Amino acid sequence: MAGASRRTILKSLTAVGALSALDMSLPVQLLPGQLESGLFEPQSARPRVTVGLNNDVNICSFGGYNGPCLIQDDAYKAARDTGADTIRYTLYWHKVEPRRGDRIWWQVDKEMERMHNAGFQVYLNPMWGPAWATGGFPVWEGFDGCNAPFRNPDGSIGVRFDRTKPGCAAPPPLDVGAYVDFTGAVTERYKDVVKFMGGMNEFNYNTFWPWGTWNGDEFTPDFKAAMDWVGRPFYETVKSIAPEISIIGPEMDDIGSLDRILGEEQGHYWDILSFHGYDWAAGYPEHALRRVDEFMNVIKRRDDTRPVWITETGKMGDVRVPGSMRSQAEGEVGFLKGIEARGDIDKVIFYRIQAGLNNTYGWIQRDDSTPENGWKQWPVLQRPVALAMREYLTGQPLPSGYPVGESVGRRRAVRRAPDFDRTDSLYDPASQRYVQWDGEKYVPR
Fold it and tell me: How far apart are CA 352 and CA 156, in angstroms?
């Protein structure tokens, strides 16, 4: 990109200005784990805990496993309308710099512009290194390297490191110098428009950072290597360029591993501590909140007083399964209420901003554009969880015309069509009407 064009984009991002803070004066009173039966509850006081959304779909927008899927302006606007104020944006190193020194910034520039234009503050999280930075071997290159599709316990499809692939049993180490150079380039480019950065993601798995030892099928991560190769270099590089940027980490998804990597920190390399609040084996939100308590106990036992964010959590909702999106909405609102009742976490970043027929986490329904559907552009729709969060976070009522009457959630009798679950309805901001999936397409309600 030409220097003048880049300066124009960055200048436009800087002009967006600071976001107005949510009123945090009156926290919601709720016992830990308590979940009210209603979905859309009128909220007299706005919550103390602020909310964000993950944006990790840009892995496919370079023509990868799922076709182009840049999030469009209308999807960001629909997400910001819910009251969420932050995007955790995953920047894939191997997509931006596929060859040493040949950096392709256009997509990141465009998404940064769109996120800021919608009013989001951005937490920038680079990850996944290119083959040229790992001994010429594609260790981290999405589905093309040592990673392979994996079905999670909740039925969703994720990725896991597959050491049975050729060369993956003993992958080469990371070129730390190249990592520092790239981190510096990212920081220089976006330092005026980014307040938060982080260099880690789930070190306890071998998916993103395959450093450790194998005993049969058991993987033991090497947290010292993680800190030496990524943790400390990332912090020191960012702070040397932009000391005002807050560093977030370690983005752990395992309670014991959080304790271990905090023990390896040996200094101050995160300004804000973070972990992921899923619960694969039991129920959401109740059991997920119990796991949050266990994570927080690790931090409290160390007398660590740094701010804490939950940077991934969430529940799936499938438009094709009756009642599934109602369960998602009740679960995620219930999780947020439980976090507010605890009073020791500042932000919850839900997974994720955009959902589809094949990716059922998310608040905004924007089904994947693929060759199989002729690259059809689907409408941007707000899911029930987005509507529930909007009412809960901002106090705004439901958009008019809700199919079952305007008294939803206020515990008065409501009319129900015999073939319609009241919370399976999605809202189309463009047409200002509610729609429902009929098995092939979205139809007005």
Answer: 13
List of the chain residues with pLDDT < 70: 1-47, 58-70, 139-145, 152-159, 206-219, 280-282, 368-377, 401-423
Rounded distance between C-alpha atoms, residue 308 and residue 303, angstroms: 13
Instruction: Give the residue carrying structure tokens 């938060």.
Output: 196
Residue written as tokens 């160390």? Answer: 302
The residues that bridge with 250 in the sheet, in sequence order, are 274
| SS3 state of residue 371 | helix
In what side-by-side order are the strands of the sheet with 442-444? 354-355, 364-365, 381-382, 426-428, 433-437, 442-444
pTM: 0.83
Check: CB of residue 46 under 8 Å from CB of residue 22: yes
Question: H-type helices in 87-228, by residue range?
Answer: 93-96, 106-117, 176-190, 223-226
Q: Are 69 and 368 a contacting pair, CB within 8 Å?
A: yes
Domains and CATH numbers, the chain: 3-444 (3.20.20.80)
Nearest to 76 by CA among 415, 409, 429, 399: 429
Between CA 304 and CA 383 the distance in angstroms is 37
Question: For 345, what's the count of Cα atoms within 13 Å in the CB-facing half-sphere?
Answer: 27
Asked whether 100 and 132 are in contact (CB, 8 A), the reply is yes
> DSSP per residue over 131-180, as a string?
GGGTTTS-SSSGGGTTEEEEE-TTS-EEEEE-TTSTT-SSPPPP-HHHHH
Nearest alpha-carbon partner for 196 in 45, 352, 311, 363 = 311
Cβ-contact 264, 285 below 8 angstroms: no
The 10 Å CB-count burial string (b at 16+, else e) for 54-84 is bbbbbbbbbebebeebebeebbbbbbbbbbb
SS3 427: strand
Given a contact cutoff of 8 angstroms between Cβ atoms, the answer to whether 347 and 359 are in contact is: no
Q: Which of 445, 313, 333, 439 is nearest to 384 (CA)?
A: 333
DSSP-assigned states of every residue in 386-414 = HHHHHHHHH-PPPPS--TT-TTTTTTS--
For the chain, how big is the Rg over CA atoms in Å? 22
Cα separation of 203 and 210, whole Å? 8
Sign for the pseudo-dihedral over CA of 213, 157, 361, 155: negative
Q: Per the structure block, which two tokens stand in for 216? A: 């049969």
Token representation of residue 124: 């920038």
